[in-house]
Amino acid sequence: KECRPDEFKCGDGRCISTSLRCNRQYDCRDGTDEYGCETVTCQPDEFRCSSGQCIKSHLRCDRKYDCADGTDELTCEPATCASNEFRCGDGQCISLNLKCNRQYDCRDGSDELTCDQPTCERDEFRCSDGQCIKSTLRCNRQRDCRDGSDELSCGEAKNVL
What we know:
Low-confidence stretches: 157-161
């Protein structure tokens, strides 16, 4: 069996994604995806991730995770966001108008943490965490609130968590 160009062929013939090679986890049953990884050398214009993966050096500390293990964003100087941006708890910068818009735009959710509780519309239900959802979604046997509070106190017959 031939593997695609973006795949690594294990010793047993099985194909796995090349991103799994040298990630310090055995993804091939025979472990061949981790053989010889210490000898992998990155080019002078590349950064070596802890997993052994090489990425272009200009991608390091660009506030985006390019290494599968995220090591390209560790030990970076704290980013300063522009005046029209909000700095998330993990250093990510997002547009200021995304803060407190009732959607998580920061990877760590910090853009919605220190917001005043929004006023829910009359046809909306307020979840325990402050999120507003359409009232018709309450007790519909599906979790529509992030915290699942829309399915609490619905009666035993309806409550499916």
